[in-house]
Amino acid sequence: MRRRGVARLAAATLVSGLVSGGLLATAGTAAADGTPQSEGGASATMGGLKTFGAAVVRDGGKDEQVSAGLFEMSVDNGGTLQTYGIDLRNPAQKDARYHETSWRGTSLSGNKNAGRIGWILNNSYPQVNDLAALASKAGAKGLTEQDAAAGTQVAIWRWSDGARVDAVDPQAEKLADYLEKHARNLPEPAASLTLDPSAVPGHPGERLGPVTVHTNADSVAVAPPPDAAAAGVKIVDKNGKAVTSAADGSRIYVQVPKKMQDGSADLTAQASTTVPVGRAFASDTRSQAQILAGSSESTVSATATASWAAEGAIPALSAEKNCTKGSLDVTAANKGNAPFTFDLLGAEHTIPAGQTRTVAIPLQEDQAYDFTVKGPAGYQKWFKGVLDCKTESSPSGLGTQTLGEPVPAAVGVTAPADTNLAETGSTSATPYITGTAIALVVIGGAALVLIPKRPTTED
């Protein structure tokens, strides 16, 4: 069997003034965005391990026993997800908030074997719920649901973390060996629902966009917020016809009345569908990344922010985790006829009229960020999350980690503090793991780099 060793120092960093909010360029009255930006799709809350067995992790000459199996999460506005962990040594937090995301925003980024995990998910429990048939293929007689979940999780850890890990139950171990041996690379599944781009600027009287809908749902409901709709803002097609629903590949626009006051509004899209098996889920807090093994019919959603002004700068902001460079890339587009100037981390940045630039915010691995960038007419965008791009390995054994909330920056941050606290050990609720101390590395400063916008590609 193939084993890959991964070594790194596990450094948990509490964000301070390093990650702070941007300052406005001019005053205005637009409503603030009250939720942090996500890529779109399903959002859910961690419930905990539901079907599991035991496994032994062999690391640095020391064996540690952990729980291994299926987690369950409750989807916002309806639905249930079943997931496996993909970062063995990172504890899962009960009640942690998770968002559907691409592999490039997790520890699977750059993992050439990530597609093998997709094969395992599609060819094992719970996607294959005929345990007799699964047992026959794996040569694992009398396979139970607990054995199937444990064996599947062990096989996933071998490819996601490069871990030397074995299932305690012999039948679960046979299943793990079978899955690891037969796994082959499958492509990353598409998102359940996204809007591209996630921010569009323009002038009153124009159709702002287009925004392209990407989804596996049959139909998606689209609408502006009620206050914007009352003021005459509409969602329309390329011909200017009002629409309330869209499908995969639809190109929609935000129609803003000509005499509309400068401001912004979120175009919202919502649908009911099953989330594709193999989609990754990342937490807003320091909680173990997950990969989807099964989904009920669930509510998924996405937003795109439209901003408009008659004169001056018209910013549109979006952000993406860059696991390759270890940064959060905040992209600012300016479709106005004046420069867009904002302050970030004590440095002033100017986006010329009609141009787009990306501000790269360097982050340490496992560092939490929580900040708001502000623009003219009251426009602001809130970004919150954790840079979790690597798997962990420590010769001193597995360790539980407990982190407090991200420390809000002193300037420009209006986001509420996160209240999730770590309550579980590696792979959640593991009574066998003893805690180890982890140094908290506080970053004193970082340089911001303006780089040209580059096209986004799926891994």
Quick structural overview:
With 459 residues, this protein is mostly beta strands. 11% of the residues lie in helices and 35% in strands. The N terminus and C terminus are likely disordered.
Shape: elongated
How do the strands of the widest beta sheet line up side by side? 1-2-3-15-14-4
Q: Which spans have pLDDT < 50 for at least 5 consecutive residues?
A: 1-33, 393-459
**E-strand count:** 24
Mean of residue pLDDT values: 79
Work out the helix count. Answer: 5
What is the H-and-E element order? EEEEHHHEHEEEEHEEEEEEEEEEEEEEE
Biggest sheet statistics: 6 strands, antiparallel, barrel
Helical percentage:
10-25%
Report the radius of gyration as a whole number of Å.
23 Å
Describe the model.
Helix 3 (145-160) crosses helix 4 (170-182). The strands form six sheets. The protein has a six-stranded antiparallel β-barrel with strand order 1-2-3-15-14-4. A five-stranded mixed sheet has the order 7-16-13-9-11. Strands 6-8-12-10 form a four-stranded antiparallel sheet, with no helix packed on it. The model is unreliable at 1-33 and 393-459 (pLDDT under 50). With 459 residues, the chain is mainly beta. Strand 1 (43-59) and strand 2 form a beta hairpin. The radius of gyration is 23 Å and the shape is elongated. Helix content is 11%, strand content 35%.
Itemize the secondary structure elements and their pairings.
Layout: E1 43-59, E2 62-75, E3 80-85, E4 97-101, H1 114-122, H2 131-138, H3 145-160, E5 165-167, H4 170-182, E6 193-196, E7 199-202, E8 207-215, E9 220-223, H5 226-230, E10 234-236, E11 245-246, E12 251-255, E13 263-273, E14 280-283, E15 290-295, E16 298-308, E17 315-322, E18 327-334, E19 340-344, E20 347-351, E21 356-362, E22 368-374, E23 380-386, E24 449-452
Parallel strand pairs: 7-16
Antiparallel strand pairs: 1-2, 1-4, 1-5, 2-3, 3-15, 4-14, 6-8, 8-12, 9-11, 9-13, 10-12, 13-16, 14-15, 17-18, 18-21, 19-20, 21-24, 22-23
Helix pairs in contact: 1-3, 2-4, 3-4
